[in-house]
Design goal:
The complex is a heterotetramer of chains A (about 300), B (about 400), C (about 110) and D (about 130).
Chain A: H1 3-28, H2 32-52, H3 56-80, H4 97-116, E1 126-130, E2 139-147, E3 158-160, E4 165-172, E5 178-190, E6 193-205, E7 207-210, E8 213-220, E9 226-236, E10 239-240, E11 244-245, E12 257-259, H5 264-272, H6 276-304
Chain B: H1 14-19, H2 22-58, H3 74-84, H4 95-111, H5 130-138, H6 140-151, H7 155-186, H8 191-197, H9 223-240, H10 252-255, H11 265-290, H12 310-333, H13 341-368, H14 370-394
Helix pairs in contact in B: 2-3, 2-11, 3-11, 4-6, 4-11, 6-7, 7-9, 7-13, 9-11, 9-13, 11-12, 13-14
Chain D: H1 2-29, H2 58-87, H3 89-111, H4 121-126
Helix pairs in contact in D: 2-3
Classes of the chains: A alpha+beta (about 300), B mainly alpha (about 400), C mainly alpha (about 110), D mainly alpha (about 130).
C-alpha cells in the first residue's frame, strides 16, 4: 500500500479515537462542564472527518455553528442552571447493566450491517459501439470515470471535487497491442452558449485484464473549476477508431462532469435551485426559534425581578 | 524557503502529497509552519515593545530604555522573565482543563493564520472556504476562554470569561454580516481570489477592467457603504480581540485580569500571544477584504518590481498594511476611554448590526444593478452630510461626566 | 480484518465510527438525569447521523450533494433545537430549582 | 484538497509542540518555591468565600441565543454570495425574503428589550450582591 494511503488511514484512526474518547467522556463524566468540553473534542473530530471526506463547507459549518454557537450556548446554560452549592457541578447518571448491554447490542447490529452490506461503488458506465476497419466486427467500448482517489465513481453530469478525475475505457473483442487516447474539452460560456475547446489529452496503454476485455485508464489532474467533456478513442498499429464521447455531443450539450474545489458553490446553487423552499422555511424556523426562546428566557428575567 | 508550497491560485497541490513528492511537500509545510510560529512569537514580542513605546510617547514618557539601544531588546528580556517565572496552578482549579485551555486559545488564533494570503499565490493553505474557515476557527477561542475562566476556580476569572465570551460572540454578528456584503463583490470565499479580485474594477461595478490601484480596492468599490463596512468591521474586530476601548472582560480596575487572572509565567504568555496573533488576524482580514491584500496601492502606474521579487513585494505590501492597522489599534488604546458593558452591547446590537445589514443590502443592490447602487450611494452621502451638518450646528461644548454606574 | 483496518474502504470505517457515536449518544440520553446532558447526547446522535449523510453523499456515486444538503439542514435545525431546548431547561430550572428530567413530571400538578 | 487540510493539521501540531516545548523549557530553567499561599485563589488578599462556580444571569443566555440564530443565518448566506452573480434576480429576491424574515425577528427582540443589557438595573441596585447573577 502506498505511504499516502497509510497516512490517510493513520489520520482517520487518530481522529476516530479522539471522537470516541470524547463521546465516552460525554457519556460517563461525573462533571457536567467536563462533559461539555469533551463534546468539543467530539465536534472537532467530526469536523476532521468531514475534511477526510472532502466536504469542506460542512467542515467549517460544523465548527462555526456547533463549536462557535451551540457549544457556547450549552456552556452558558450549564453556568445558568447550577446552584452555588453544587461544588463539583455533579452530573448523575443511572447506568444499568441493561442500558450498557442494549447499547452494545445496537452498536454491533449497526456495525454488522455497515460492514456486511455491499455498498455500490462503481459509477454507471456508458457503452458505445464504434465501427472498426473493414472486414472486422465493430468494437464495443465501455466508458466510465472515477474521482481522483480511484474509489468513488462519478456519474454523468456529476462533480469532481478536487480537480482530479480518472477516465477509463474498456474494449471488448479487440486483439493485439493497442493504446487509448483521451481528450478533455473544457467549456466556456460565451453569449450564453457553451463553447467547447480541447483542454488536455492523455494516453494510456491497454492493460490485459482478462481475455477478451482490456482496460485503459487516463487521469487528469489540477483541473481548474469548470465544466468538462471527455472522449476517447483506440489506436493500434493498424489504425484508429473514431472519437467516442462519454455523454451526449453537440454544441449545447451538457458537461460530463464539473470540476470543483469544495462544496461551497454546489451548495449555493442548490439553495437557489431544488432547496429553495426548505431554505426559506429555515428562515421561518429560525424566526420562530428566536422569538420562542427569547420569550421563554425573558420570562425568567421578569420573575427574577 | 517557501519554494515547495508556492502554487498557482487556481490549482491545489494536494496531489503532490498524495501522488507526488509528498515528503518534499511535507518538509515544505514543516518549514513554513516553523517560520510562522516563530514569526508569531517574535511579532508578539516586538508588538509589546511597540505598544509600550507608543504608550510612552502618548503619555510623554520614554518607555523601556535600559535593555538594548533605546530599549529595543526589552521584549527578549520579557520573554526570558516569563520563562523563568513560577508556574502556578491554584488549588481550586480543575487541573486538566486549566492545562488544556492555553492550547485551545492559542490553537484557535494560530490556526487562522494558515489561510491568510501573504503574497500572490502563497498562503500556507489555499482553501476554497478561506474566510469562513478563519471565522470558524476563531470561534474556538471563545470555548478556550470559557475553559480557562471556569477551570481557574476564581470568581474574577469566571466573570471575565463570561463577559469575554458574550462580547466576542456578539461582535461576531456585525463582522459576519459586513464580510458577507463585501463577498458579494468578490463572489468567492478564497482569500487568494479575494485579493486578486481587487486588482481591477471599481466605482459601483461600472468599471470592470479598470486598474484603479487604490480605487479598485474593496474600500472604494461602493463608496459610502464599503467605507462604512470597513469602519464597522474594524470596530467589531477590535472588540473581538478584547482590546481597549472594548476591554471590559479584562478591565484591570474591575476584574483584575479577566479570564487569565490565575495564569502565570509561560502559561499566561500564551493568552498574551494569542491576543496579539488575533490582532494580526483581524488586521489581515481587513487588509484582504478592504485594502487590496498584497496589491500595491498605485495599480500599474509604477512598475511592480522595485523589490527583488514579486512574491516578496506582495509580502511587503501585505505586511505594511497589516502593521499599519495593528498600529492604529494601539493608537486607539491610548486615545479612547473604556466602554461600559451596556454601551458595549448597545453599540454592537443597535448600531453596528443594523448598519452592517444596510450595507449588505446596499452593496447587493449595487452589484445587481449598478445605477441603483450609485443612486443609493449618493442618497446615503447626502443623508450623512445632512446628519453631520445638523450635529455640527447643534454641537456645544459638553463636559463629559464619568459614568455613575460602574456596575456591570 | 486487515482489509478493513488499513483499507481502501473509507465508507465502512466511517459508518462504524458513526454507529459508535450514535450509540454513545443514545447511552447518554438514556442514563443521564441532567437535561443539559441529555441535550449533549442528542447532539452526539445528530453528529453521528451527519457523518453518515456526508459519507453516503461523498462515497456513493451518483448521489449528488443531497446528503451534504441534508447535513446542513440538520445543523441548522440543531441550532434552533438547542436554542429552544436550553431556554426550556432554564425555565424548568427557575421553576423547580433542578434540571433533572425525571422531575419534570412535577409540571403535571 | 487533502494537502491543505494536512497543512492545517501540521500547523496545529507545531503550535501545540511550541506550547509544550516552551513549558518544558520553562520547567527546566526556573526555580520552584512551593508555598500553599501561592496556590490560593486570587482574591486581592481576601479569604475566598464560597466557590467560584456560581450561577449567572440569564441575559448572558439571551445574548448567546440571539447570536446563535444570526450565526446560523450568516453561515448559510456564505454559499449564497458565491453564486450571487450567476443566479441573478432569483438569488436577489430570495435573499431579500430571507433577510426580511430574520429582520422581523431582530425587530422583535429589539422592541421587546432583549438587546438591553441593563434592563434589570433597578434590581441590581436593590441587591448589591447580584453582580454576575
Amino acid at each position: 500500500m502506498p505511504i499516502q494511503e497509510i497516512l490517510l488511514n493513520i489520520f482517520f484512526y487518530a481522529f476516530a479515537l479522539v471522537a470516541l474518547g470524547g463521546g465516552i467522556a460525554v457519556a460517563v463524566s461525573r462533571n457536567i462542564v467536563r462533559s461539555a468540553f469533551a463534546l468539543l473534542a467530539v465536534l472537532f473530530a467530526v469536523a476532521a472527518m468531514y475534511g477526510f471526506m472532502r466536504a469542506d463547507f460542512i467542515l467549517v459549518a460544523q465548527v462555526l455553528i456547533y463549536v462557535g454557537g451551540i457549544l457556547v450556548l450549552i456552556i452558558f446554560a450549564v453556568m445558568l442552571t447550577h446552584k452555588i452549592t453544587d461544588v463539583r457541578l455533579s452530573n448523575e447518571s443511572a447506568p444499568g447493566p441493561a442500558a450498557i448491554f442494549a447499547c452494545l447490542c445496537l452498536f454491533f447490529a449497526l456495525a454488522a450491517v455497515a460492514l456486511s452490506y455491499r455498498w455500490e461503488r462503481a459509477a454507471p458506465s456508458r457503452e458505445a459501439t464504434v465501427p472498426s476497419r473493414e472486414g472486422q466486427p465493430p468494437i464495443r467500448l465501455e466508458l466510465s470515470m472515477t474521482q481522483g482517489d480511484g474509489r468513488t465513481g462519478v456519474t454523468p453530469g456529476g462533480t469532481v471535487l478536487d480537480g482530479f478525475v480518472r477516465c477509463a475505457v474498456a474494449a471488448r473483442g479487440q486483439g493485439g497491442e493497442a493504446q487509448a487516447r483521451f481528450r478533455l474539452e473544457r467549456g466556456v460560456l460565451k453569449e450564453s452558449v457553451w463553447q467547447w475547446s480541447e483542454f488536455r489529452t492523455a494516453e494510456a496503454r491497454f492493460r490485459a485484464a482478462e481475455p477478451g476485455t482490456r482496460r485503459a485508464e487516463g487521469s487528469f489532474d489540477r483541473l481548474p473549476p469548470g465544466p468538462y467533456r471527455w472522449s476517447a478513442r483506440i489506436e493500434d498499429f493498424e489504425g484508429e477508431t473514431a472519437w467516442v464521447a462519454f455523454g451526449s455531443q453537440g454544441e449545447g450539450a451538457a458537461a460530463d462532469f464539473v470540476s470543483e474545489r469544495g462544496l461551497t458553490k454546489s451548495i449555493g446553487s442548490a439553495f437557489m435551485g431544488p432547496y429553495l423552499l426548505p431554505f426559506e422555511l429555515v428562515s421561518v424556523l429560525l424566526l420562530a426559534a428566536l422569538v420562542g426562546a427569547a420569550y421563554l428566557a425573558r420570562k425568567e428575567v421578569h420573575r427574577q425581578g | 524557503m517557501f519554494g515547495t508550497a508556492i502554487m498557482p491560485v487556481e490549482t491545489g497541490l494536494w496531489d503532490a502529497v498524495l501522488y507526488g513528492d509528498w515528503y518534499v511537500s511535507l518538509l515544505g509545510i514543516f518549514i513554513a509552519c516553523f517560520v510562522i510560529v516563530n514569526f508569531i512569537a517574535v511579532y508578539a514580542g516586538v508588538n509589546t515593545l511597540m505598544e509600550r513605546k507608543i504608550a510612552a510617547r502618548m503619555q510623554a514618557r520614554i518607555g523601556p530604555y535600559q535593555v538594548g539601544p533605546h530599549g529595543s531588546l526589552q521584549w527578549l528580556a520579557d520573554a526570558l522573565k516569563l520563562m523563568v517565572k513560577e508556574d502556578i496552578i491554584p488549588r481550586n482549579a480543575d487541573h486538566l482543563l486549566f492545562r488544556l485551555a492555553p492550547y485551545v486559545v492559542f490553537g484557535g488564533s494560530f490556526a487562522a493564520w494558515v489561510a491568510l494570503p501573504f503574497t500572490a499565490g502563497w498562503s500556507p493553505a489555499v482553501m476554497d472556504v478561506g474566510i469562513l474557515y478563519i471565522l470558524a476557527v476563531s470561534s474556538a477561542v471563545v470555548i478556550g476562554i470559557l475553559m480557562a475562566g471556569w477551570s481557574s476556580g476564581s470568581k474574577w476569572a469566571l466573570f471575565g470569561a463570561m463577559r469575554s465570551a458574550a462580547q466576542i460572540v456578539s461582535y461576531e454578528v456585525p463582522v459576519g454580516i459586513t464580510l458577507l456584503g463585501m463577498l458579494l463583490m468578490y463572489g468567492t470565499l478564497n482569500m487568494q481570489e479575494i485579493s486578486q479580485a481587487q486588482e481591477t474594477g471599481g466605482f459601483f461595478g461600472f468599471l470592470t477592467d479598470w486598474h484603479g490601484g487604490i480605487f479598485s480596492w474593496g474600500l472604494f468599490r461602493h463608496p459610502p457603504f464599503t467605507i462604512l463596512a470597513f469602519l464597522v468591521y474594524y470596530t467589531a474586530g477590535l472588540a473581538e480581540t478584547n482590546r481597549t476601548p472594548f476591554d471590559i472582560p479584562e478591565a484591570e480596575s474591575e476584574l483584575v485580569a479577566g479570564y487569565h487572572t490565575e495564569y502565570s509565567g509561560m502559561r499566561f504568555s500564551f493568552f498574551f500571544l494569542a491576543e496579539y496573533a488575533n490582532m494580526f488576524v483581524v488586521a489581515a482580514i481587513a487588509t484582504t477584504f478592504f485594502l487590496g491584500g498584497w496589491l500595491p496601492p498605485f495599480g500599474h502606474l509604477v512598475g511592480r518590481t522595485f523589490l527583488v521579487s514579486p512574491l516578496l513585494e506582495g509580502v511587503f505590501w501585505f505586511m505594511s498594511k497589516c502593521f499599519f492597522l495593528v498600529f492604529v489599534m494601539m493608537w486607539l488604546r491610548w486615545t479612547l476611554p473604556r466602554y461600559r458593558v451596556d454601551q458595549l452591547m448597545d453599540l454592537c446590537w443597535k448600531k453596528l448590526t443594523p448598519v452592517a445589514f444596510i450595507n449588505l443590502m446596499a452593496i447587493g443592490v449595487g452589484e445587481f444593478w449598478h445605477l441603483g447602487g450609485l443612486m443609493l450611494g449618493v442618497a446615503a452621502l447626502a443623508a450623512l452630510g445632512l446628519l453631520v451638518s445638523k450635529e455640527v450646528a447643534r454641537a456645544e461644548p459638553v463636559i463629559q461626566t464619568p459614568a455613575l454606574n460602574p456596575k456591570s | 480484518m486487515t482489509d478493513y483496518l488499513f483499507s481502501q474502504r473509507p465508507l465502512e470505517n466511517l459508518l462504524v465510527l458513526s454507529a459508535a457515536l450514535f450509540v454513545l449518544g443514545l447511552y447518554t440520553i438514556v442514563t443521564r438525569k441532567n437535561a443539559v446532558s441529555v441535550l449533549m447526547g442528542v447532539e452526539l446522535v445528530l453528529n453521528a447521523a451527519n457523518v453518515n449523510f456526508v459519507a453516503f453523499s461523498q462515497y456513493l456515486p451518483g448521489r449528488g450533494i443531497h446528503g451534504s444538503m441534508f447535513t446542513i439542514f440538520v445543523i441548522l435545525l440543531a441550532a434552533a433545537e438547542a436554542a429552544v431546548a436550553l431556554a426550556i431547561i432554564i425555565g424548568i430550572y427557575q421553576n423547580f430549582g433542578r434540571v433533572d428530567v425525571d422531575q419534570a413530571d412535577l409540571m403535571k400538578e | 484538497m487533502y494537502f491543505d487540510y494536512a497543512n492545517i493539521l501540521v500547523y496545529l501540531l507545531v503550535a501545540a509542540g511550541f506550547i509544550l516545548g516552551s513549558l518544558i523549557v520553562g520547567r527546566v530553567v526556573r526555580r520552584q518555591r512551593p508555598d500553599p499561599e501561592k496556590l490560593a485563589t486570587y482574591e486581592c488578599g481576601e479569604e475566598t468565600i464560597g466557590t467560584a462556580w456560581i450561577q449567572f444571569n440569564v441575559r448572558f443566555y439571551i445574548i448567546a441565543l440571539i447570536f446563535l440564530i444570526f450565526d446560523v443565518e450568516i453561515a448559510v448566506l456564505f454559499p449564497w454570495t458565491t453564486v450571487f452573480r450567476q443566479a441573478g434576480l432569483l438569488a436577489f429576491i430570495e435573499m431579500g425574503v430571507f433577510l426580511a424574515i430574520l429582520g422581523v425577528g431582530f425587530a422583535y427582540v429589539w422592541a421587546k428589550g432583549d438587546l438591553e443589557w441593563l434592563k434589570s438595573l433597578g434590581e441590581v441596585r436593590t441587591e448589591p450582591s447580584r453582580e454576575g447573577r
